[in-house]
Request: fold
Amino acid sequence: SDPPPSLVCWSTQRCSRAGTSNPNVRQAEMALEPRPALASASGRSSITRGVQFAEGVELDSANSAAGLAAQQLVKSTPLSEDLTRELDRISPQVSAQRRAQIEDALREVLSSCQACCGPADDGAAPTLLPLGSYHLGVMLPNDEVDVLFTAPLSSQPTELCIAVRQELERRGVAKNLTPAGRDGILAAPGFRCEVRGVAMKVIVSQNIPALPPPRDEAIVQNMAGVYNREAMENILMSVPNVELFRSLLRFIRVWAKQRGVYGSFLGFPGGMAWAVCCAKICQMYPGVELSQIAARFFRTLSRWDWRQPVALDSSPAPTTPSAMGGSPDHPGTTPCQMTVLIPVGSGLSATSQVSDTTMKITMKELRRGYKMVQQVEICRAHWTDVYKEAKFFQRHRHYLEFDFMASSEAIFAAWSHWGRQKIQDVLRLFEQMSSNMVTLRPWPEWVAFKDSEWSHCSAVFVGLHLERGPSDASSEGPRRSFDLREPIVKFLEAISQWPEADKHANKFELLIKHVRLSELQTWLENKQRGLTAGAGSGAGTALQGLSSGSAGNSWHVSEEDPRPVQNCSV
Reply:
């Protein structure tokens, strides 16, 4: 008798890839176990790729060549049904009421953009296009809305951003207006704001004709937003089943945030990188259902040979050493090992900010995720155990606490935005100066708290682990200590260059503290009870302070005595 359809598809797929040089593809194929028979149907199902917003116009991606091929219909298993219900609970879709609120806010932004520039190059009125999770269809109700405004060639995007921000302020419909800042290699002019309760990031770009494809060393900044949009389109067109891809990406976004490995501002893979990884797994394993694709995601990436980048089948391979990782902000640093290529141009990395430290943390979490999924498959665990929040605040004896504080919401938005751009340098500085003595574990989330002096406060925490020397265990006398002065002072030198510091003198502050685990637990308990975070405790020991150009003291951290000893005055 004829073999099951699943085995026919598998053997055809394997033969077609026999000549590939990617060891990850070969390893994944060899490990793929036979699956139950799958029913197939000709023609691609009608799936809406875009989203409705602003003027209420549906934005659909162009049909891909893959979409013309036959699409397999997969029967859902109890495990997949259970995961689907879990997704509906932890990653709910945007409600109709919230979508209407978003559309109203985007209309206001679009009106302001159109008022500040002339008609589009084709004579039509300029419009807004979705980006990021909004475009991919995985946005959570309270997520920031990313949109692209394509400006006419007659205008300058940077100047247009300033004009639109001033127009929104004049109309009184927006607050917390700040520059968009650099976020990955495709950084473009833009701004962040909150309009009618909707947080959004507006990227301003131009569609300049006759330009060569972007490369790592040659990206036209005014086109970066268009490239970002094109990359999102290519991701959606590359997957065999868009709805399965969206479900997988929704699950991975929750998992990565709960486990503390999501967010480029502290050196972890960002949204683009995780989307490409999910799309790659969907390409490698077409025709499987949700629980199986989730298991293959963790298994494949936890075993990935990072000498080869993660790239979609339609993406060109990197052609230069810089495409294999290094950070454009710090060209002198060692290129990172974890490389995920953006599906546009040639060799553009979505993980240029990933360091050796954050790569090790991410790979550890991927291996843990695979072990937990295996337990789910044999009914010894539940999906909630896979994405259970990491016990970061109970794991370390020492922590660095970065308290960003301001006297108003607008100043805090600008101050924390500047801090977000600079704080990722902390990991780089520690790796350069002390990677053999201290290991950092950053937590890529801002933790809001109350303070007796400042009305708006948030903290960023970094776990510290002091490595023991080969003779520490048997030697007598004081244990190793690490001087925090040099990396902290260098970080303060960078962050103190805030362009708006003089404008907001005596209205903002940064306090860097070393806290012990017991002090952190008291801090968290006070926060949970709605009290001032430092009430009733030592609240840690200040390492450095920055308030309108002032600086405090430097300290040592000792493995034997967690409380630092003052070293010198700066």
Q: What stands out?
A: The mean pLDDT is 77. The radius of gyration is 25 Å.
